[in-house]
């Protein structure tokens, strides 16, 4: 909590655009500190995920840099919507403006808008749309409520001229302007679909955000939710090994369960790949290949331990537990436990997990 504010302050005072190389160098320094110069066992992207998504909420400097620029973007947008000057022509080569525009382009790439127009594309003063640069009927449209490209759409469909005329009270003689703006919109690849609406989550955020209180924190959380690079492959592996569905990757538990969740323990099978002289067989039964799920669940010796846990909890709660690996291993809801019993079950489940924590070495030794 002491380091991040020291980094955020210069980010806000100096709105710089960080290339990928600079971000990688900073994250490499973080990783070297976290792992004490050793080879990282967890990817930095996984550590930066929110706790509810299986990460450790390690600060993502790229997203914080974007969040600091969001304040400027917000001021520009709402000044434009209110017909107030936001970018003066004589400062078009200003490096601060250039950096903020570059950041916005990176944000749109993260949101999946690469190569597509944004719903917030302005229709006046936009040099990509030349008819709207000089004083023209589009400036009158701006006063009537047609300010950005998204205003031309209804339910993800470009409105006809008659629909626009009825909604915004346009003149009948402005049909030629509608043809110009329709060509600009369609040639700019703004074709909304169910998967890509006119306004993405980030567009909605900057459009509806009027109070700048806690803006950086809100924008940072939004960027984390939009970023889809996560640990999906890990929970798919869990679903395959345990023959179950709907694995919820939440990491609000102790370190041992975090290692279980991300499969960080080095099993005999992994040791064999690292050193062919090591046996890949389970250290306990010496019969099966020591895969992750075998060492923690299928091994006959380990099964006795889980049977003891089930018997102990059954005696306390007067319930016959089915030996469900999803419940005992990952804490997933068991089918034979009603909602009224779930509270007492979860109250005593940490006691069982503490037992396996103390016996963690028992699994591999």
Can you give keywords for this protein?
single chain; 365 residues; mainly alpha; two-stranded antiparallel ribbon; 18 helices; 2 strands; 54% helix; elongated; disordered C terminus
Word description of this protein:
Among the domains are: 3-110, no CATH class; 233-364, no CATH class. A hairpin with a 2-residue loop joins β1 (153-154) and β2 (157-158). α4 (61-81) packs across α5 and α4 (61-81) crosses α10 (215-226). It is elongated. The chain is an all-alpha fold and 365 residues long. Residues 350-365 have low confidence and may be disordered. The chain has helices spanning 3-13, 20-34, 44-47, 61-81, 95-110, 137-144, 161-168, 175-187, 201-208, 215-226, 232-242, 255-261, 268-274, 292-298, 300-317, 325-330, 339-358, 360-364; strands at residues 153-154, 157-158.
Describe the secondary structure blueprint for this structure.
Elements lengths: L2 H11 L6 H15 L9 H4 L13 H21 L13 H16 L26 H8 L8 E2 L2 E2 L2 H8 L6 H13 L13 H8 L6 H12 L5 H11 L12 H7 L6 H7 L17 H7 L1 H18 L7 H6 L8 H20 L1 H5 L1
Antiparallel strand pairs: 1-2
Helix pairs in contact: 4-5, 4-10, 14-15
Provide a count of the helices: 18
Average per-residue pLDDT, rounded, comes to 78
Biggest sheet strand order reads: 1-2
Indicate the radius of gyration in whole angstroms: 28 Å
Structural class category: mainly alpha
Molecular shape: elongated
Share in helix? 40-55%
Task: Give the termini distance in whole angstroms.
Answer: 38 Å
In the predicted model, the low-confidence regions spanning at least 5 consecutive residues are: 350-365
Helices and strands, in order, run as HHHHHHEEHHHHHHHHHHHH
Strand content: under 5%
How many distinct beta strands? 2
